[in-house]
Design brief:
By secondary structure, the chain is an alpha/beta fold. The chain contains 13 helices and 15 strands. It has three domains: 53 residues, no CATH class; 97 residues, 2-Layer Sandwich (Beta-Lactamase), CATH 3.30.450.370; 224 residues, P-loop containing nucleotide triphosphate hydrolases (Rossmann fold, 3-Layer(aba) Sandwich). It is 35% helix and 21% strand. A nine-stranded mixed β-sheet has the order 9-8-10-11-7-12-13-14-15, with helices on both faces. A hairpin with a 5-residue loop joins strand 13 and strand 14. The longest helix is centred in the first third of the chain and has 16 residues. The termini are far apart. One of its GO terms (cellular component) is cytoplasm.
Length: 385
């Protein structure tokens, strides 16, 4: 079926608001003065249904169980990440206008506006998929579309070991950190697997503990019987209704959490999180963007400054609140792995630094200078690494 005819049928169905069933596609074709065979009508119906109600040409990619990201940089440049780095696919859109239409439709499904006046969007689709899109001319040449897939279940720790994310035997150390109720953050770059690992670890929390999650975009899916999930909300077009992550952290503290979780620490909420971890809320955790575990104190210091907390006060709070940093990285082949585990210490000037306790090894974690300190913290809390 030619593009012009397909566009005409698409417009007719969109204006009617009806689902593109084969019968309705055939009727729309008759209105356009065309009669096609059953096979052609069914093919047109499948294509239109995918475009009008699904993710268009991207739908098969999103359905693949090992795909974590789908990225579109041009109509004929579609990439996926299956856990081993980006791969270019053979999927293509008819033209740049088709990419723009898909991005705008997905944004509308998420309840967001995407047009020339507001040329970007960051939102969550009803199935949990994370959507980010930028329209031209801000995105040069073509609409740039990024989809982050959230799987309906968390991986088990054994599955992460089998996948090479956790080294052989490394699950014992991670279980000990949880059993000892040590407060920790998982650090790493974008797409390094922070959310995946955190979901897995939260699934290991004792079933009689209450987990309260606070996230900008609900991505965590822990396999746990008692989870309360809170999600931030942007302001509406009138500029009202804003709910920030900092608001959620404050509300979570009033919900009797055994484990307070901040999906990603990225702003002033770091102040409320550190305050909570210093007032009896043991075992709290979250994720933070950082290039290395040793960079986490500086990263949190920068975030704390957005809340008006000076450097000395932030480091005092940090030293008492946080115990462990688990850092994820990608190797040269794009595979995610737990690169290192650090404990926190204070230098002679009173500022917090991190000390490597365990580093990645092909046959298991290799002990580093901070191992004795980590073992002591775990044993004191009732865990043994």
């Amino acid at each position: 079926m030619k593009g012009a005819l397909l566009d005409a049928v698409r417009l007719r169905l969109a204006e009617s608001g009806l689902e593109p069933t084969p019968a309705r596609v055939a009727e729309a074709l008759r209105h356009e003065g065309r009669l096609l065979g059953d096979a052609e009508v069914l093919g047109a119906a499948d294509r239109l249904r995918s475009e009008l109600t699904g993710a268009g040409p991207l739908e098969p990619l999103l359905a693949e169980p090992d795909v974590t990201d789908v990225l579109v940089t041009a109509p004929d440049r579609v990439w996926v990440d299956r856990g081993a780095g980006l791969e270019r696919t053979g999927v293509a859109f008819p033209d740049a206008a088709a990419v723009r239409r898909l991005a705008q439709r997905l944004a509308a499904i998420a309840g967001r506006r995407l047009d020339d006046a507001r040329p970007w969007v960051d939102a969550r689709l009803p199935d949990g998929t994370r959507l980010h899109a930028v329209l031209p001319p801000v995105a040069v040449g073509s609409t740039c579309l990024s989809l982050r897939v959230v799987r309906p279940r968390a991986f088990s720790l054994d599955e992460l070991v089998a996948a090479g994310t956790v080294p052989p035997g490394g699950q014992r150390l991670l279980r000990a950190v949880l059993a000892a109720r040590l407060s920790f953050v998982i650090s790493g770059g974008t797409g390094s697997g922070k959310t995946t690992l955190l979901s897995t670890l939260l699934g290991l929390v004792a079933p009689d503990e209450r987990i309260v999650l606070t996230e900008d975009s609900a991505e965590l899916r822990p396999d746990h019987p008692h989870v309360v999930r809170l999600e931030s909300r942007p302001a509406n077009q009138e500029g009202t209704g804003l709910v920030t992550l900092r608001d959620l952290v404050r509300q979570a503290l009033r919900m009797r959490p055994d484990r307070l979780v901040v999906g990603e620490v990225r702003g002033a909420e770091v102040l409320d999180l550190l305050a909570a971890l210093n007032t009896g809320h043991e075992g709290g955790c979250g994720t933070v963007h950082a290039n290395a575990a040793s960079d986490v104190p500086a990263r949190l210091e920068a975030l704390g400054s957005t809340a008006g907390l000076d450097r000395a006060a932030l480091h005092s709070q940090l030293a008492a609140a946080l115990s462990v940093v688990i850092h994820l990285a990608r190797d040269r082949r794009g595979r995610r792995r737990v690169a290192e585990v650090h404990v926190l210490d204070r230098d002679g000037s009173g500022f917090v630094t991190t000390v490597p306790a365990a580093v990645w090894g092909a046959e298991g974690f290799e002990r580093a200078p901070g191992w004795a300190r980590l073992a002591e913290l775990c044993e004191r809390g009732g865990g043994a690494p």
